[in-house]
Design brief:
Strand content: under 5%
Structural class: mainly alpha
Number of helices: 15
Order of helices and strands: HHHHHHHHHHHHHHH
Shape: globular
Number of strands: 0
Largest sheet: none
Radius of gyration: 22 Å
Distance between the termini: 51 Å
Helix content: over 70%
């Protein structure tokens, strides 16, 4: 009865807004805040579930109803509810943001049954880089990008706008970097085997060995722990992680935004690491070197000419990431190092992505300075 009394005012407040409308309709401030607070809560559940999930799969056999999956499902349910609201009412999003959120949610929901079928057909499939898993990341990527655009276009200028935008980019970086965690957990799994204290339960090791058709030995553990080429990790760090930080810096328009976003993600990984270890779940390497690459990006934004900024910034970020990754490997366990040529290829990809981002952000008016100018002009009599 108490629950009904508490829910009644919420329902009375929300019902008048449940009307069909086109994207971009004027959204009351209180509704706008509630919608995006909902997105922050949804992404928190998804990130916590995902962090536990990757560690879980290095210890136990897969289970569709495992606690990490259920935690992630809470976030997905909230995200689906918010997507339906955006699509039906048109509140809180423009047309582009609405499409990104809608398509992202659709891709994610399609990927879920495909992933279940994939596991039924192919067995364990622990690799983060499988097609069905990549569909989950891509769906979440589109979803988060839609939310970022919706907040960017609709939030009033101020400190809260910048903080929430930065937080959304932390979620975006977490999603983009998620598949690379396989290597970060994998090197710890191999190290634990070499010490004679494997982190994976015997049933998981036996299942993986049977699937590979071989005995439980070190080569099997290596293949289980590091199923993709070693070159993937540093190349992905330079190309994928750094471009997220470039866009974050450009869209917020605040000095050292890229560093703050990378540091926030690394801080989260550093905090979740001992919690998982205390619960006797596998540990992982933490990509602290991302902070150094982010700092190089922030400093590159002191250059005013976009083309020069992209070229100098890409070179600086590539060199800094490669050097700090080597340095971190000497002090702390990291995925296997590779020749500098691999990192250089990632740098070339970053140049292309950065130049494209410079053009797209200007073309679609997604720079912080442009948006602030539009808001100022609209507010002027």
């Amino acid at each position: 009865m108490s629950l009904k009394r508490r829910a009644a005012p919420v329902v009375q407040w929300a019902l008048p807004y449940w009307t069909r409308g086109k994207a971009g309709r004027e959204t009351p401030e209180d509704l706008f805040r509630v919608l995006y607070l909902g997105w922050l809560v949804a992404f928190c559940f998804k990130v916590l579930g995902a962090s536990w999930d990757v560690s879980w799969h290095f210890k136990w056999l897969r289970d569709d109803l495992a606690p990490p999956h259920l935690l992630n499902s809470v976030g997905t349910a909230i995200a689906l509810t918010l997507t339906i609201i955006h699509l039906y009412t048109g509140y809180g999003v423009d047309r582009t943001a609405q499409r990104l959120v809608g398509w992202g949610t659709a891709v994610f929901l399609i990927a879920v049954p495909l992933d279940l079928i994939n596991h039924r057909v192919n067995g364990l499939d622990i690799t983060s880089w499988s097609p069905s898993h990549m569909m989950l990341y891509i769906g979440t990527l589109l979803m988060v990008c839609g939310v970022i655009r919706g907040w960017f276009m609709g939030a009033p200028p101020g400190r809260m706008r910048t903080l929430v935008l930065g937080g959304l980019f932390v979620f975006l970086l977490e999603n983009v970097w998620f598949p690379a965690q396989h290597q970060e957990y994998g090197v710890f799994g191999i190290a634990a085997w070499d010490k004679g204290r494997p982190e994976a339960e015997p049933i998981l090791l036996q299942f993986a060995a049977d699937q590979m058709g071989r005995a439980i030995d070190r080569p099997m553990v290596v293949k289980f722990s590091l199923p993709v080429p070693d070159q993937v990790y540093p190349l992905y760090a330079v190309a994928a992680a750094m471009i997220v930080l470039v866009v974050a810096r450009a869209m917020t328009g605040r000095t050292f935004t890229a560093t703050a976003v990378a540091a926030s993600y690394v801080a989260y990984r550093t905090l979740i690491w001992p919690l998982l270890a205390l619960a006797d779940f596998p540990r992982s390497a933490v990509p602290a070197f991302l902070i150094a690459g982010a700092l190089a990006i922030d400093l590159a934004f002191l250059i005013r000419i976009p083309v020069v900024r992209a070229l100098v910034g890409s070179l600086a970020a590539t060199v800094v990431v490669e050097e700090t990754l080597v340095l971190q490997s000497k002090a702390y366990l990291t995925p296997p190092l590779v020749p500098p040529l691999t990192v250089a290829i990632g740098g070339v990809i970053l140049v292309v992505l950065w130049l494209t981002a410079e053009w797209a952000l200007t073309r679609y008016r997604l720079r912080a300075q442009v948006m602030e100018a539009v808001v100022s002009a609209t507010a002027s009599p």
